[in-house]
Amino acid sequence: MTPEEFRAAGHELIDWIADHRARVPDLPVAAQVRPGEVRAALPIRAPEAPEPFADVLADLDRVVVPGVTQTQHPGFYGWFPSNASLASVLGDIASGGVGALGITWQSAPALTEVEQVVTDWLRELCGLSPQWRGAIQDTASTACLVAMLAARERASDGSEHRGGLQSLDAPLVAYTSPQAHSSVPKAALLAGFGADNLRLVDVDPVTYAMDPAALRRAMAEDAAAGRTPAVVVAAVGTTGTTAMDPVPAIVEVAREHGAWVHVDAAMAGSAMLLPEMAHLFAGVDDADSLAWNPHKWMGTILDTSLLYVRDVDHLVSVMSTTPSYLRASTDAEVVQYKDWGIPLGRRFRALKLWFHLRLDGVEAIRARLRRDLENARWLAGQVEAEPGWRVLAPVELQTVCIRHEPVGPDGEPLDGDALDAHTLAWVDAVNDSGRAFLGASRLDGRWMVRVSIGAEATERADVEALWSLVRGAAASAGA
Ligand code: PLP
Known about the structure:
Elements lengths: L2 H21 L13 H4 L12 H12 L11 E2 L8 H13 L10 H17 L7 E5 L2 H17 L15 E5 L6 H8 L7 E3 L11 H13 L3 E8 L11 H10 L3 E5 L24 E4 L1 H5 L6 E5 L2 H8 L30 H11 L1 H24 L3 E3 L7 E6 L11 H17 L4 E7 L2 E7 L7 H18 L2
Parallel strand pairs: 1-11, 3-4, 3-5, 5-6, 6-7
Antiparallel strand pairs: 2-8, 7-8, 9-10, 10-12, 11-12
Helix pairs in contact: 4-12, 5-12, 6-7, 6-11, 8-9, 13-15, 14-15
This protein binds pyridoxal-5'-phosphate (PLP).
């Protein structure tokens, strides 16, 4: 494709994106395909001859759009807000257009230095002190793995470093809560802690936040038994209920054992942009690492996850590789992001953030986050006031965990498997309606429904419509 052909097709594509976004509210929210349907709609072999751009565009409408859950829809309340602000979409296109290769500072100085600038901007906006340094990772899962590797190496330290885990006499132990995201146990496993050396510390039964007294007991027991407490992953905004693990107390306990504290604020981290929410993030500045995803609630398109660390020299000592073919052509001190994580090559992801922040501005992003917090409080108030309905966990941010607990045919409140069946029936009915999309998950062994408010397009009227839809679906599902 020549630049001129690209120009013509590119204009058509931009028009297509703008038209698509305008009609998203009229589409069903859930993906409309059965397993295998998308594959079956496509040829089994790659084309030998070029196809017209119009045919490719037509297939976006015919095959791709029905095969996508419309996370930009005002009725999207599933999993977590997965906003893809159009300003950041432009940055993503620009990133592809520049076609930079980020393997060293030398290969694309601008790629490195724009990333330094935007991660510094966000560090300051989040209220982290200047010694923190950030890099963009693909996801919070990778960020957690990188943090755990750094923690592992700090705990196994010195001469044993090159011998790896095999050379340690005392097993290293990681701690998190049963409410932590599944990426945390996965990272612990990948970082070599092993399932036997990951402790799931009890949570408070009402707030679902980690109990620091239980953490203290677990760490003391391990230390007394000759194991080394190495890392605690605190969830600040758990996936299930947005519970906030008490970071100040966790840091205090961890410090007694020299353990690393990683804060996983993948979804909730966007709220650090709001000064009035700073109390929820107290103590984070004293942790060792922090991950949060602008690609969730804040709205920079995937994949834009931030990993901040306090001691970047340590991270670099763990991750650094200098093969001869990456010889530096300058002696100046430059950041080599290849030494801040796992991959060598990186995309120019910083452009997505740069465009997003510059074109939308922080104040508009803050206003949207505040709107979502207000909408969540409004919905929680409605649910609490409605007989037969419950809000199951504190509404810390924009997620409201709810259940309809009607009276059963025997005149007793529905519970057990019958209650689970009822919950899944009404949530499926809402999702099948195409007008909204909700997520179900288990809390204390029973199904509940998470209303995760925060799609860029969701206004109060949409939340009001959702509440009416939900009540209707629950009433029709019967007891
Ligand atoms: N941590 C928390 C608290 C999450 O809610 C999620 C995703 O829902 C993740 C980690 C994983 O995020 P990612 O998809 O960026 O790996």
